Amino acid sequence: MTVTRPLFAGLGAVLVLLSAAGVAACGSTDEEIELGAVGVEAGVGALALRDIELDNPPPGGYQTGSAARLNLAIVNQGRQDDYLVDVSGEAFEAVVVDDAEPSTPLRIAIPAGETVYTGGSGEADLILVGMDESLLVSETVSVTLTFQQAGAVTVDAVVSAPLRLTLDRYLREIEEGDA
């Protein structure tokens, strides 16, 4: 019995050391892990575009001829400032920035190392005017964003669902026993 006790004690010490080394190895990695926002994402040049969507529509969705706010975050991961110089698409006539005339040239600064938000609480409101078709929640519209340095990227911006609609649907599913 005295022989097995030191053997088990030695085994226990080895297991503790091995598990500590394993835990330490888990924390040391050269692999970069990126966490993205929920929603439509894209990238062009040194720019990352996140959470690209059309604002919550009015009841019944966006109607033909109406206007829709384009919300997104533009992350400049580079060392050089860039500028959003055009927003275009076949599903709308023009883009208006901050209630300016549609003929006003678009030029929104995207400073190096910073994030610029458009939409309700962002630096600029981008309003797509003259929608050529009706759009409902979760439908998409193709939008091309052109930057002075990075170039152009085309994305399918989704019509976002109002939180109230999402909660109503969830509560209805609970009542029906589907959730």
Features:
179 residues; alpha+beta; Immunoglobulin-like; ten-stranded mixed beta sheet; 2 helices; 10 strands; 21% helix; globular; disordered N terminus
Round the Cα radius of gyration to an integer and report it.
Answer: 26 Å
What share of the residues lie within helices?
10-25%
CATH architecture heading = Sandwich
Name the CATH superfamily assignment: PCu(A)C copper chaperone
Helix vs. strand class: alpha+beta
Count of domains = 1
Number of strands: 10
- Count, helices: 2
For the sheet with most strands, the description reads: 10 strands, mixed
Which percent range describes the beta-strand content? Answer: 25-35%
* CATH T-level topology: Immunoglobulin-like
What does this structure look like?
By secondary structure, the protein is of the alpha+beta class. The chain is 21% helix and 34% strand. The protein is built from two helices and ten strands. Strands 1, 2, 3, 4, 5, 6, 7, 8, 9 and 10 form a ten-stranded mixed beta sheet that branches. It is globular, with a radius of gyration of 26 Å. Mean pLDDT is 78; it is low at 1-37.
Summarize the structure.
With 179 residues, the protein is of the alpha+beta class. The protein contains two helices and ten strands; from the N terminus they run αββββββββββα.
Task: Please give the structural blueprint.
Layout: H1 4-27, E1 40-44, E2 47-54, E3 68-76, E4 82-88, E5 94-97, E6 108-110, E7 115-118, E8 126-129, E9 140-147, E10 151-159, H2 163-176
Parallel strand pairs: 2-10
Antiparallel strand pairs: 1-2, 2-3, 3-7, 3-8, 4-6, 4-9, 5-8, 9-10
